[in-house]
Write a structure and sequence with these properties.
The chain is of the alpha/beta class. It has 2 domains: about 280 residues, Zn peptidases (Aminopeptidase, 3-Layer(aba) Sandwich); about 110 residues, Alpha-Beta Plaits. About 35% of the residues lie in helices and about 25% in strands. The structure holds glyoxylic acid and manganese (II) ion (MN) (3 copies). GO terms for molecular function: hydrolase activity. This is Zn-dependent hydrolase.
């Protein structure tokens, strides 16, 4: 089926310059100028289609096709995703789901479709947790998976709290927390670029998600003694960088089929010619089941402690966020897989759909990613596959919200 103007790739082209970094990737963090520009773009797309936009107290934006007050039992069909990115992220993780939602509405309307339930396109706030350290903050707050007290006190690297960042953008942080509109939603279907090569192996443009691996983020603070890089013999050092390095190597050894990543470090004082006094390292760990994840993280922390004892340093470990295993609604998943004649597959990546799955029947559609690369500038999906994703999403809306 051909695209209806503008196609999903034209919609992505529209925002191609927002938050573009020198790497070619994107830096689009919650409550920054880039985020606000993307929110305006979202509003513009909604307005161009005559959709009313509402924002909840957490900054989640919802564009409504039909009449919807978000009252309990109203049974809207929620689609959409997020527009924020990881540092130097790709163009598709998040925006593909939002753009495909607008494109699907166009395609359905062009075919004369009239929904029997309200269709709501969501733009969730801070899915990646790139600024305040906890992923899916918008959906966690809306669903009560985290408390406003905890979320609003989170700080970015400059020490700004979420509450301050929201206030700076004219929001009242006292409105953050469980969102009444969630009780007015019957189902959520999030379309997302695949973050892996499952669909390449399946030779399919679109798939349906079965499950999300349990995953989380832990903070490890390694402390030692700052000293001169030239004047301190190697045997006299208390170097927390070496303890961190031993821990990262142990994590690779222990992970096996699970995943352990140290992608973010803060080093103090961060001088080339000074032994650090402190290294803070953030561990992202994921595994196929919760027991494996717990054993992996316990093992990494135990290795960190024994390396610290040997190095004369110390280590403190704390969990920043942990998300349990998610199994998407099986009847909904099976219905969509049969409808689309699409393969089903699990993922190691987290999503707002994984958070909202605890509150309502939720499903995800994945669009093929030829290399599987994601959270990096080279993340990609072919135009034809993006178009197939819009077709699939339109078919799902027709199935779930048709006569
Ligand atoms: C978010 O995309 C995550 O899985 O970390
Ligand atoms: Mn992501
Ligand atoms: Mn995403
Ligand atoms: Mn994600």
């Amino acid at each position: 089926m051909g695209s209806v103007t503008p196609g999903v790739t034209a919609l992505l082209d529209d925002i191609a310059d927002v938050g573009r970094a020198r790497s070619g990737g994107y830096r689009r963090f919650a409550w920054t100028t880039e985020d606000l520009t993307l929110r305006d773009w979202f509003d513009g797309q909604a307005a161009a289609r005559g959709l009313e936009v509402v924002e909840d107290g957490n900054g989640n934006r919802l564009a409504v096709w039909g009449t919807w007050a978000g009252n309990p039992g109203e049974d809207a069909l929620l689609i959409g995703s997020h527009l924020d990115s990881v540092p130097d992220g790709g163009a598709y993780d998040g925006p593909l789901g939002v753009a495909s939602s607008f494109a699907a509405v166009d395609r359905l309307r062009a075919g004369g479709f009239e929904p029997t339930r309200p269709i709501v396109i969501g733009n969730f706030t801070d899915e990646e947790g790139a600024r305040f350290g906890v992923a899916c903050l918008g959906s966690r707050l809306a669903s009560g998976a985290t408390t406003p007290e905890r979320a609003l006190a989170l700080r970015d690297d400059d020490g700004t709290t979420l509450a301050e960042a929201m206030r700076a953008q004219g929001r009242d942080p006292r409105a953050a927390g469980p969102a009444a509109w969630l009780a007015g939603v019957g189902q959520f279907v999030e379309l997302h670029v695949e973050q892996g090569r499952g669909l390449v192996h399946d030779d399919a443009a679109v798939g349906v998600a079965t499950a999300i691996w349990p995953h989380g983020r832990w903070r490890l603070d390694f402390c030692g003694e700052a000293n001169h890089a030239g004047a301190t013999p190697m045997g006299d050092r208390k170097d927390p960088m070496l303890t961190y390095a031993a821990t990262a190597l142990a994590a690779r050894r222990l992970a096996g089929d699970a995943r352990a990543t140290f992608g973010r470090l803060a080093v103090a004082p961060n001088g080339t010619n000074a032994i650090p006094s402190r290294v803070t390292a953030w561990l992202d760990a994921r595994a196929a089941d919760e027991g494996d994840l717990e054993r992996l993280v316990d093992g990494i922390v135990a290795e960190a402690r024994s390396a610290a004892a040997a190095d004369g340093t110390t280590v403190d470990a704390s969990a920043e966020s942990v998300t349990g295993a998610v199994t998407f609604d099986v009847p909904l998943r099976d219905r969509l897989a049969a409808l689309l004649d699409a393969p089903v597959l699990p993922t190691g990546a987290g999503h707002d759909a994984g958070i909202l799955a605890a509150s309502l029947p939720t499903a995800m559609l994945f669009v093929r990613n030829p290399t599987g690369v994601s959270h990096a500038p080279s993340e990609h999906a072919d135009d034809a596959d993006c178009d197939a994703g819009v077709d699939a999403l339109a078919a799902v809306v027709r199935e779930l919200a048709g006569g």
